[in-house]
Amino acid sequence: RSDLQSAARRHGDSLKLPPRSLPRFLSARLGAHAENWTPGKRCGYHTYSAWLILGEIVQRISGRSFSSYVREEILLPLGMSECYVGMDKPTFTRYARAGRIAELRSLLPNGRERLRASRGISPNEVMGCVPGSNGRGPSFEWLRLWEMLLGGGIGANGTRLLKDSTVAKVTARK
């Protein structure tokens, strides 16, 4: 959204990310991880840590938790009222009592269930905010994100979330 983008421009290169609210394991594990390439020659991408860093930047610039920012600025404007990235405790309790927390299963290549894998239904797993994953809610509501992208940044309900030029950039084939 434009308020986040303008704040990012104001901060520019001065936006430092000491591990204030980043999970400690991120700093420890990334710092201790052996590089598999020569810096400057190849780039690498770690899906989990990259999203955590993005979540931290959003929190610092917006002054809100990543979960609140996503819910208030993306999910609710698109009519995704049953969707969460990090569900709050009262909602988790209400949904769990009503049997609305679906199990997530990990399968092996042969199609059998990975027995030691978590089912994704504990309070920590459902309420934990993990940027880039852990989105919970009905699939028909999550499709509204794709509808917004197909609509050039405008949701099916008429809400403009992104500029059409931004949608063109993030969906361009490289």
Q: What about the largest sheet?
A: 2 strands, antiparallel
Query: How many beta-strand segments?
Result: 2
Question: Which radius of gyration do the C-alpha atoms yield?
Answer: 18 Å
Determine the strand fraction and express it as a percent band: under 5%
Order of helices and strands: HHHHEHHEHH
Mean pLDDT: 79
Q: What's the helical proportion of residues?
A: 40-55%
Number of helices: 8
**Order of strands across the biggest sheet?**
1-2
Molecular structure report:
This protein has 174 residues and is an all-alpha fold. Helix content is 45%, strand content 2%. The protein is built from 8 helices and 2 strands; from the N terminus they run ααααβααβαα. The protein has helices at residues 2-11, 24-32, 47-62, 66-75, 89-97, 123-127, 139-150, 164-171, and strands at 84-85, 135-136. Strands 1-2 form a two-stranded antiparallel ribbon. The two termini are 24 Å apart. Residues 1-21 have low confidence and may be disordered.
